[in-house]
Design a protein that fits this description.
This is Sulfatase-modifying factor enzyme-like domain-containing protein. The protein is an alpha+beta fold and 287 residues long. It has one domain: paralog of FGE (formylglycine-generating enzyme), CATH 3.90.1580. It is 11% helix and 21% strand. The protein has helices at residues 88-95, 116-129, 140-148, and strands spanning 2-3, 18-22, 25-32, 35-42, 45-49, 71-75, 79-82, 135-136, 207-213, 223-224, 238-241, 257-260, 269-270, 274-275. The strands form four sheets. A four-stranded mixed beta sheet has the order 1-5-6-10, with helices on one face. The chain is globular, with a radius of gyration of 17 Å.
Length: 287
């Protein structure tokens, strides 16, 4: 697994209010209506997507055998990825109206109870108002690459996790680890440690929508810049990644995959933004 040293084609972007480089790499900030969202530069590279056959608790409820088939993925272009999921403050700044979230402890909690269609509506409104932003959902491969942050272990934090690192159901730890706290709700973004690429709560807290149409088995062949667009035979639905505050330890692993229909809303689901690539065209609607 590696990351090459290719830089973004434009830095900073015209919409950025602040930018720089720190221990995690390049970053730039969007200020929208007083709400700030940091984007991290994710360099191109390759990685093994999915999980090895001996990884504990693999495929235990992700949608069927083969959901975590391991295969090499090459991402030929870097991309910007939000360092957090979209917050309730950001959601209301863009769309106004009522807050759909069930856990409204603070504006810095992630927005939830949003469907894939809701996320698309948010993105369309944001892009219409910020010239050159080109926000979209990450592809599933982009999401896992960023979650792993150069690791090949079940979690970006190593072979196991604790509730001090990840918001999940601590009553059901991974692979025989000690039990821990179960919070029963989301935590505010940036409450828990970032991975080594500066991305927060990629494991747990909320499931995150991806662009891809669900496909049970992604195969074993090496692929380049994949995006599953669907042809009516994939079973429909949109990909979810990362697990939630309500999931067992095994359900928040880097490789774990799930799906919902694009109009489903749930208090377990949110989303984070990527900044688009022209080579990844709009994914087909699920049938």
């Amino acid at each position: 697994m590696y990351r090459n040293q290719l830089s973004p084609p434009l830095f900073p972007c015209p919409w950025a209010c602040e930018w720089g480089e720190d221990a995690y790499g390049l970053w730039q900030t969007l200020n929208y209506g007083g709400v700030r969202q940091v984007f991290r530069w994710i360099e191109p590279g390759n990685f093994m997507m999915g999980s090895p056959a001996d990884e504990e608790e693999r495929e235990w409820s992700g949608g069927g055998e083969g959901t975590e088939t391991q295969h090499q993925v090459t991402l030929t272009q870097g991309f910007w990825l939000a360092d957090t999921t979209v917050t309730q403050a950001f959601w209301l700044a863009v769309l106004g109206g009522e807050n759909p979230s069930g856990f409204q402890d603070s504006p810095e909690h992630p927005v939830e109870r949003v469907s894939w269609d809701d996320a698309r509506r948010f993105i369309e409104a944001l892009n219409a108002d910020v010239a050159g932003l080109s926000a979209q959902l990450p592809s599933e491969a982009q999401w896992e690459y960023a979650c792993r942050a150069g690791t090949a272990t079940p979690f970006s934090f190593g072979n196991n996790i604790s509730p001090e690192q990840v918001n999940y159901d601590g009553n059901y730890p991974y692979a025989g680890a000690e039990k821990g706290v179960y919070r029963w709700k989301t935590v505010a973004v940036k409450s828990l440690p970032a991975n080594s690429w500066g991305l927060y709560e990629m494991h747990g807290n909320l499931w995150e929508w991806c662009r891809d149409v669900w496909q049970v088995d992604l195969g074993t062949a090496a692929v380049v810049d994949p995006l599953t667009q669907g042809d009516g035979t994939t079973g429909g639905g949109r990909v979810l990644r990362g697990g939630s505050w309500n999931d067992f330890g095994g359900g928040v692993r880097s490789a774990f995959r799930f799906r919902y229909a694009p109009d489903d809303r749930d208090h377990l689901i949110g989303f984070r933004l990527a900044l688009g690539h022209t080579e990844l065209g709009p994914a087909a609607e699920p049938k």
